[in-house]
Design a protein that fits this description.
The structure is a single chain. The radius of gyration is 27 Å and the shape is globular. The strands form seven sheets. Strands 19-18-13-14-15-20-23 form a seven-stranded mixed β-sheet. Strands 1, 2, 3, 4, 11 and 12 form a six-stranded mixed β-sheet that branches. It folds into five domains: 199 residues, 2-Layer Sandwich (Nucleotidyltransferase, domain 5), CATH 3.30.420.40; 96 residues, Nucleotidyltransferase, domain 5 (2-Layer Sandwich); 78 residues, Alpha-Beta Complex (Actin, Chain A, domain 4), CATH 3.90.640.10; 105 residues, Substrate Binding Domain Of DNAk, Chain A, domain 1; 90 residues, Substrate Binding Domain Of Dnak, Chain:A, Domain 2 (Up-down Bundle), CATH 1.20.1270. The protein is of the alpha+beta class. The protein binds adenosine monophosphate (AMP). The site of adenosine monophosphate has 19 residues, from helix 6 and helix 7. Adenosine monophosphate binds next to helix 6 and helix 7. It holds the Pfam family HSP70. Keywords: ATP-binding, Nucleotide-binding. One of its GO terms (molecular function) is ATP-dependent protein folding chaperone. InterPro entries: ATPase_NBD, Heat_shock_70_CS, HSP70_C_sf, HSP70_peptide-bd_sf, Hsp_70_fam.
């Protein structure tokens, strides 16, 4: 398909905790790209089976049968440590296994084609991105290279880098890591850019499956300036589901004196039923949670009211308003300064969440005009076209200014216990900030620079994100060597820090976790492995198609109008094909395709529509 100005289009991918969505700017508008099942959003789910790997809907649809090898919600792991309390809390609820890998990085353990395999979160994310890339490529009939991937505004440097790496692993050129609320604001405002020129303050409230983001933007004349962001990387629909699950587990225990929490399959089936009930409660005052043979042959059924659901999640809903207050405080604005409230994310369909927003903003109209599941990908596609130089006047008008989600600084004084703030949170990016430091002791010949992110004055409460040392300082009384330090943050929110001794020009620095925690060699290995997995998927699909052809031939052979010799040869060919597949589990894809082709040539009826 031709693109604007003959430039291969760049895509926008909303890589969500529970669902992902891909969109493209084409034919003067944004198109949300449906997947092979015709769905506009795809589950962020990867499954491993005895036969092969499944992605998206195919993976989600078999979750209940294969819970320990069906991986979801990896966005909650990406860029985090295994010992992180959030990770520890999450993995308690997951049926698949997560263990500590090298450098305390979580690894997901699955059984794939009879072998135990361990994957980093970025590898699983790369598989979801592969699916989204393929969805786009099938639709556009070209190879897609350039993409924007969105992340919660609250993602730190290491989570952003790990997401970027996931794109690199599947051969995407990630032209920008973009904040989800900014993308949603663009989607909201795009139609109005050239109509409504008044500057507006827009609050984007994005409550999805696993993350909550709130951002305040000033929009006008095609400029989108993020004034402040806040949020919680661990709050969303999955938590509401878990509250329902806990409620049912307790009820089951009371009624039947049995604890189902140790049974992964029962827990997964219960969670599916709870999620369904939660959705029903968005438009009905009551719902039934029902699971046949939930545990020990016992059927489980319970009724739940909207009011009870709201009660179970009350504290979680209230956490949303706390974050809005923080965001407004950072932007130096009170709630009356907000002109528009945009709701994004599947969980904003919950009536209580909408009511809380209405109450908080004292009756202000909530904007739900853009599809909550698609808004982020929609805005990302517009910005992708903008950066990709796809010639389109409206698209090129956009100017985006994002901000740093967390404060950044250096540990100073004895034991590096105090945070010397260099870049306050909510500073517009890209940015370069300078600070100068001095030696603390007489004859000090080296200085360590531990770099932290976080809001505490004490470094022990912040997150150490990297460190480096400057050596070779000439011995001298304390305070006589001056060191210039620069913090440089690029448009993706990725930080590099450099320091230079003023008198000697001795210099050192780091790009903080330029590769997340991965080395270039590790990324290369993952790229190669991703290629191998993809080839195995294709081989698996090809085996299935040959099997399907053989089955079709067998059933066509049974047609009573067919001569007995035709019948015999068709049956024989079909059985031979199946036997050949069984004898050759490792046959290569060309051989399998050749067999398909031969069957079709010999029996052209196979190519006819049913
Ligand atoms: P997102 O990450 O934006 O795709 O949001 C996905 C989350 O929205 C999941 O937790 C869904 O269960 C939740 N969700 C989708 N539709 C509804 C609904 N009608 N009522 C409540 N939650 C919903």
């Amino acid at each position: 398909m031709a693109s604007e100005g003959n430039i291969a289009p760049a895509i926008g991918i909303d890589l969500g905790t529970t669902y992902s969505c891909v969109a493209v700017w084409q034919n003067n508008r944004v198109e949300i790209i449906p997947n092979d099942q015709g769905n506009r959003i795809t589950p962020s789910c990867v499954a491993f089976t005895e036969d092969g790997r499944l992605l998206g809907d195919a993976a989600k649809n078999q979750t209940d049968m294969n819970p320990t090898n069906t991986v979801f919600a990896v966005k909650r792991l990406i860029g985090r440590r295994f010992s992180d309390s959030f990770v520890q809390n999450d993995i308690k609820h997951w049926p698949f296994k997560v263990v500590a890998g090298p450098s305390d990085r979580p690894k997901i353990v699955v059984n794939y084609r009879g072998n135990q395999k361990k994957f980093y979160a970025e590898e699983i994310s790369s598989m979801i991105l592969l699916k989204m890339k393929e969805v786009a490529e099938n639709y556009l009939a070209i190879t897609v290279k350039n993409a924007i991937i969105t992340v919660p505004a609250y993602f730190n440097d290491s989570q952003r880098q790990a997401t970027k790496n996931a794109g690199t692993i599947v051969g995407l050129n990630v032209i920008r890591i973009m904040d989800e609320p900014t993308a949603a604001a663009i989607a909201y405002d795009f139609d109005r850019i050239n109509v409504d020129t008044n500057k507006k303050n827009v609050l984007v409230f994005d409550l999805g499956g696993g993350t909550f983001d709130v951002s305040l933007l000033s929009i006008g004349h095609g400029n989108f300036v993020v004034r402040a962001t806040a949020g919680d990387t661990h709050l969303g629909g999955e938590d509401f589901d878990d509250r329902l699950v806990d409620h049912c587990v307790k009820e089951f225990k009371t009624k039947y004196k049995k604890d189902i929490t140790g049974n992964a399959k029962s827990m997964r089936r219960l969670k599916t039923a709870c999620e369904r009930a939660k959705r029903i409660l968005s438009f009905s005052s009551r719902a039934t949670i029902e699971v046949d043979y939930l545990y020990d042959g016992i059927d489980f059924s319970t009724r739940i009211s909207q009011a009870r659901f709201e009660e179970l999640n009350k504290d979680l809903f209230m956490r949303c308003t706390d974050q809005i207050e923080e965001c407004l405080r950072d932007a130096n604005m009170d709630r009356t300064g907000v002109d528009v409230v945009v709701l994004v994310g599947g969980s904003t369909r919950i009536p209580k969440v909408q009511q809380l927003m209405k109450d908080f903003f004292e009756g202000k109209e909530l904007c739900m005009g853009i599809h909550p599941d698609e808004a982020v990908a929609y805005g990302a596609a517009i910005h992708a076209a903008n950066l990709n130089g796809q010639r389109e006047k409206d698209v090129q008008n956009l100017v985006l200014v994002d901000v740093t989600p967390l404060s950044l600084g250096v540990g100073v004084n004895q034991g590096y216990k105090d945070m010397h703030l260099v870049v306050p949170r909510n500073t517009p990016i890209p940015t370069k900030k300078h600070t100068s430091m001095e030696t603390l002791y007489d004859n000090q010949t080296f200085v360590r620079f531990p770099i932290y992110e976080g809001e505490s004055a004490e470094t022990k409460y912040n997150n150490l994100i990297g460190e480096f040392t400057i050596n070779g300082i000439d011995p001298a009384p304390k305070g006589s060597a001056k060191i210039n330090v620069w913090f440089n943050i690029d448009a993706n929110g990725i930080l590099s820090v450099t320091a230079q001794v003023e008198s000697t020009c001795i210099k050192n620095g780091i790009v903080i976790k330029q590769n997340g925690d991965l080395t270039a060699a590790e990324i290369q290995t993952m790229i190669e492995e991703a290629g191998r997995y993809k080839a195995e998927d294709e081989k698996y699909k090809s085996r299935i198609s040959l099997e399907d052809l053989a089955e079709k031939l067998k059933s066509l052979a049974m047609d009573p109008g067919r001569s007995s010799s035709d019948m015999k040869s068709m049956k024989e060919a079909a059985e031979n094909a199946i036997a050949w597949l069984e004898r050759n589990p490792h046959a290569d894809i060309d051989e399998i395709n050749k067999r398909q082709w031969k069957l079709k040539i010999t029996f052209p009826i196979l190519c006819e529509e049913n």
